[in-house]
Task: inverse folding
C-alpha cells in the first residue's frame, strides 16, 4: 500500500513548482484576457454586421418597392440615406446609393445598385 | 484499496491551463469560421447586386446589334470587383452575359432579351394602307385595338355567309400608314445575311455529331454547316449552336432542340415536333400538323436578293408557335412573301408579314401585314378575313413579349439561359 501511494505521488520542490505554476497561470490568464479583449473589440464588427444586414434589407425594399426617390430613414441606432441619380446620362437608368450611419453619423457602409427607371 | 493521487500545484495548473486553452482555441475557431461565412455571404450579396446592376444596364440601354459588344460597368461599389458585360444578337433576339468578379469568386448570368413593346404593339392588328378596306366574314374576331387603312373596315359576304359578330373591332381604331412599322436596321442586316451564310462554302463544313450537342451560352458559338440535306432526328442540340444547310433542313419529331438557330433555304418541321428554336429560311418554312414551337421561338423568311421564287411560310392545323412568325421582303425582290396560318393553328406573339397573310387560325398578340388574302378554289380575295381570330396579348400572361421594331430604348428579358 505504501509502495503504491509512493508511486502515484508527484514529487517536486514546492517553491520551484509553485513559481512555474504561477507563471503558467499568469500566461494563460493573460492570453484569455487578450482573447476577451479581442472579442470585445469585435463588437464593432457586430455593429457593422448588423448595419450591413439593415442596409441590405433597405436596398431590397428600395428596389422591390421601386422607391426611386431620395429619402432618409431611421432604424434603431442607425440612420439610412438614399440618393438617386441618373446613370451615364441615360434617363432609362438610375443609380441608387444607399448609405448607413451610426448614432454619431459615421458612415458604416454604402451600397450602389443600378435599376431601370420605370 | 483506495488510490490517492497527490498532486502538486504544477499538475493542477497544467490541467486547468490545458482545458482553458482548448476552450479558447475552439471559441477562436468558431469566431474565425463565422467571420469567414459572413465575409462569403456579404461578397455573394455584393456580387448578386452587381449582377442585378449589369442586367439593369442591359435592359436600359441599346437596341439590336449583330456584333459582339464587350463593356465593363462601374457603379462605384468596390474597386476590387469588375462587372463585365457581353452582348450580341442571337437571331431575332439578343443574348447577354453578365459576369461579376471578385478576387475569389465569380458569378455569371446569361439572358435572352429583346426590345420592349412599342405603342403599335398594344393593338392586335396593323394592316398597311393600300387604299383597300378590310372585309370581315364569318366568325372573324378582332379582339383589340386595330390600325386600319383609311378605307376602313366593313362586313363582307362570301358564299352566302355574312359577318357573324355584333361589332367589327373590339377596341379602338386608328389609321395605318403606307408601310409597316420599320424593323431594327441591324436585324434587317442580319436577315439579309441569311442567304449568303447558307451558300458560304469558304468557311468549310462541320458535321453535327451523332450524339448531338450541348453548349452553354457562356461559351463560344458553335456552327455546324453541312452541304446538302440535313435531317435532325434522335438527337439533342441545345445552347449557342447554329445549324446551316445550303439545301433542305428537316426536323423530325424525335429531335430535341433548345435555343438553337437553324438556317437553310428550306426548313421543314415534321408532325409532332416540339422544341424551342429560331428558323431562318430564304425560300420556305413548313410546319406540319401538331408541332409546338415553344417560347421564345421564331420562324423567319428572309429572302435573298437573287431569289426568283415566292417565299412561303406555312403553319398547318394544330401548330402552335409561341414567339415570332415573320416574312420579310427585299424591296428589290419581285415577289412578296406569303404567310399561311391554317385553321386550327395558333401564334402567341407576333406575326410580321411584309407581303400576303392568309389568316384562318388564331393570333394572340399582334399581326402586322401588308395584305390579307383569302383563297377559295381559283378565287383569291384581297383584304378579306374569314373565320380568323386576333386577340390582344395578355401581357400579364406573356410578360416577355418583345419587339423587333426599331427605336426601342428599353429591353425585356425573354428567358434566363444560365
Result:
Amino acid at each position: 500500500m505504501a509502495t503504491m501511494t509512493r508511486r502515484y505521488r508527484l514529487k517536486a520542490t514546492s517553491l520551484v513548482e509553485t513559481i512555474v505554476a504561477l507563471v503558467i497561470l499568469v500566461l494563460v490568464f493573460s492570453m484569455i484576457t487578450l482573447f476577451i479583449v479581442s472579442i470585445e473589440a469585435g463588437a464593432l464588427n457586430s455593429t457593422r454586421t448588423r448595419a450591413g444586414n439593415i442596409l441590405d434589407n433597405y436596398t431590397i425594399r428600395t428596389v422591390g418597392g421601386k422607391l426611386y426617390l431620395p429619402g432618409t430613414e431611421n432604424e434603431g441606432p442607425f440612420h439610412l440615406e438614399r440618393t438617386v441619380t441618373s446613370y451615364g446620362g441615360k434617363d432609362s437608368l438610375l443609380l441608387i446609393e444607399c448609405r448607413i450611419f451610426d448614432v454619431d453619423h459615421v458612415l458604416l457602409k454604402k451600397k450602389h445598385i443600378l435599376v431601370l427607371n420605370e | 484499496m483506495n488510490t490517492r493521487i497527490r498532486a502538486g500545484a504544477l499538475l493542477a495548473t497544467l490541467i486547468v491551463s490545458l482545458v482553458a486553452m482548448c476552450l479558447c482555441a475552439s471559441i477562436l475557431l468558431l469566431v474565425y469560421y463565422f467571420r469567414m461565412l459572413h465575409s462569403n455571404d456579404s461578397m455573394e450579396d455584393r456580387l448578386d447586386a452587381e449582377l442585378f446592376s449589369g442586367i439593369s444596364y442591359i435592359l436600359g440601354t441599346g437596341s439590336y446589334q449583330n456584333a459582339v459588344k464587350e463593356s465593363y460597368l462601374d457603379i462605384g461599389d468596390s474597386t476590387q470587383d469588375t462587372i463585365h458585360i457581353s452582348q450580341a444578337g442571337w437571331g431575332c433576339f439578343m443574348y447577354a452575359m453578365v459576369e461579376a468578379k471578385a478576387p475569389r469568386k465569380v458569378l455569371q448570368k446569361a439572358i435572352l432579351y429583346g426590345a420592349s413593346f412599342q405603342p403599335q404593339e398594344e393593338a392586335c392588328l396593323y394592316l398597311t394602307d393600300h387604299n383597300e378596306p378590310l372585309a370581315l366574314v364569318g366568325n372573324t374576331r378582332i379582339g383589340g385595338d386595330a390600325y386600319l387603312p383609311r378605307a376602313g373596315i366593313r362586313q363582307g359576304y362570301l358564299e352566302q355567309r355574312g359577318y357573324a359578330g355584333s361589332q367589327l373591332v373590339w377596341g379602338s381604331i386608328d389609321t395605318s400608314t403606307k408601310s409597316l412599322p420599320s424593323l431594327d436596321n441591324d436585324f434587317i442586316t442580319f436577315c439579309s445575311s441569311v442567304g449568303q451564310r447558307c451558300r458560304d462554302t469558304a468557311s468549310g463544313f462541320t458535321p453535327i455529331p451523332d450524339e448531338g450537342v450541348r453548349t452553354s451560352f457562356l461559351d463560344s458559338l458553335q456552327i455546324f454547316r453541312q452541304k446538302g440535306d440535313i435531317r435532325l432526328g434522335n438527337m439533342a442540340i441545345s445552347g449557342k449552336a447554329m445549324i446551316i444547310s445550303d439545301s433542305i433542313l428537316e426536323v423530325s419529331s424525335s429531335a430535341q432542340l433548345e435555343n438553337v438557330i437553324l438556317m437553310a433555304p428550306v426548313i421543314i418541321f415534321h408532325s409532332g415536333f416540339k422544341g424551342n428554336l429560331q428558323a431562318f429560311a430564304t425560300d420556305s418554312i413548313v410546319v406540319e400538323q401538331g408541332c409546338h414551337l415553344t417560347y421564345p421561338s421564331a420562324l423567319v423568311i428572309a429572302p435573298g436578293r437573287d431569289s426568283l421564287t415566292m417565299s412561303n411560310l406555312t403553319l398547318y392545323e394544330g401548330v402552335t408557335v409561341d414567339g415570332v412568325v415573320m416574312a420579310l421582303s427585299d424591296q428589290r425582290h419581285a415577289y412578296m412573301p406569303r404567310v399561311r396560318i391554317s385553321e386550327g393553328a395558333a401564334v402567341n406573339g407576333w406575326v410580321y408579314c411584309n407581303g400576303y397573310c392568309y389568316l384562318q387560325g388564331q393570333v394572340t398578340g399582334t399581326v402586322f401585314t401588308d395584305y390579307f388574302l383569302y383563297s377559295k378554289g381559283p378565287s383569291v380575295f384581297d383584304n378579306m378575313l374569314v373565320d380568323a381570330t386576333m386577340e390582344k396579348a395578355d401581357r400579364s400572361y406573356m410578360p416577355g413579349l418583345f419587339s423587333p421594331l426599331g427605336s426601342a430604348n428599353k429591353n425585356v428579358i425573354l428567358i434566363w439561359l444560365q
User: Anything to note?
Assistant: Residues 12-116 of chain A form a domain with the Pantoate--beta-alanine Ligase; Chain: A,domain 2 fold (CATH 3.30.1300.30).
